[in-house]
Amino acid sequence: MTLRITRAASEATPHDRLVAAARLQLPVEELPRIRATALAWRNGLAALLAGLVGFSLIKGRSDISQLQRPWPVVVGGLLALSLLAGGAAAACLLRAAHGPPGSVDADEVIDEAADDPLGNADRIEALTAARALTCGVVLAYCCAALLVLAVGSTWYGPGKQERVQVVLPGGAPCGEVQKLSRGTLTLKTSAGLANVSMTQATGLRAVDQCPAPASP
Amino acid sequence: MSDDPADAEGRPPAAEPFEEITDPSYAGFADSCEIVERKGGFRIVGTCPRCGHRMTYPYPKRVIVRGIGIRRRRRSDSQDRELPMLCTCTQEHPGRSADEHGCGAYWRVALQNSAT
């Protein structure tokens, strides 16, 4: 699409002059404005995330190995994504508040055709900083949301089923307890459900992992 | 106009005094101006129809205004509309205050968006 200027159909009024002057005023001092806005957002979001993480406002299990699979993997994935989002948010917010960490070509900064040779560079930087600020804010909220999801998963994720091993004169079946009825314990073992008569048991112990069945 | 040659003694011609003024003839600005598209908007470059100085009128599409998050009615993307503008030349014009621009002349142009 191409923009084109032609003669206007109507004459200008004094109000038009006010509108034209207002449009001239809008882009003035954009860069200091966006820098100040980015600083305020950076500080506010940093305080929010520091409150969530540093002061343990939300705290879940400290040992996710107590969760039933695959929940430890889910929690780990959410925490990793949260870390990535937080890092990217910090980079974007710092970029918006302080500018790029490097030098630029002087010829790209000076606009020889403009009345204000530096004005165009300031305007481009202001728009770039505004985009970085928007990205940073969105990513920081994503970081907080992922963190809350991860901690919530440790709260509400199913815990690992307790396993027991029953010592009998002829063996030691091991598995998850299903039920206990009339002296018979039903275990879910790797070979299926097994009924164990507790009247013959000489020992009972809780285990994290059942021993591998002996090979024939 | 100020672009006239200097007088016999080599002095530059006196600049037009600053005055908020418009005239139907100022619409002729549209015949000779050009649009320079830039990131985040465009600018209209031409010669002021009153003082004759070169001038640039910026037209930003998006601006950063701290503390204002308004979402007012949005113009259609066609951008076919009339645009008020004023002289923004940087030459001296007697009587111009520090917060004013150019020689004081203002007018309207029609902005058209062709699909070519």
Could you characterize the architecture of this molecule?
- The complex is a heterodimer of chains A (216) and B (116).
- In chain A, 49% of the residues lie in helices and 17% in strands.
- By secondary structure, chain A is α+β, with helices and mostly antiparallel strands.
- Chain A has a five-stranded antiparallel sheet, with no helix packed on it.
- The N and C termini of chain A lie far apart (80 Å).
- The mean pLDDT of chain A is 86.
- Chain B has 116 residues and is mainly beta.
- The model of chain B has no long low-confidence stretch (mean pLDDT 81).
- The chains are: A alpha+beta (216), B mainly beta (116).
- The A-B interface holds A 1-12, 14, 16-17, 19-21, 23-24, 26-27, 30, 33-34, 36-37, 113-115, 120, 123-124, 126-127, 130 and B 20, 22, 24, 26-28, 30-31, 33-40, 42-44, 55-60, 62-66, 79, 82-86, 88, 90, 101, 106-116.
- Strand 1 (2-7) of chain A pairs antiparallel with strand 5 of chain B.
Biggest interface? A-B, 36 and 50 residues
Numbering strands along the chain, what is their spatial order in the largest sheet of chain A? 5-4-3-2-6
Task: Report the mean per-residue pLDDT of chain B as an integer.
Answer: 81
Taking the sheet with the most strands of chain B, its summary is: 3 strands, antiparallel
From the N-terminal CA to the C-terminal CA of chain B, the straight-line distance is 37 Å
Shape of chain A: rod-shaped
Summed up, the domain count of chain B is: 1
Strand content of chain A: 15-25%
Number of helical stretches of at least 4 residues of chain A: 5
Q: Which stretches of chain B are poorly predicted, pLDDT < 50 over at least 5 residues?
A: none
Uncertain regions of chain A: pLDDT < 50 for 5+ in a row? none
Mean pLDDT of chain A: 86
Count of DSSP strands of chain A: 6
Order of helix and strand elements from N to C terminus of chain A: EHHHHHEEEEE
Portion of residues in helices of chain A?
40-55%
Determine the N-to-C terminus distance of chain A. 80 Å
For this entry, what is the oligomeric state of its chains?
Answer: heterodimer
- Beta-strand percent range of chain B: 25-35%
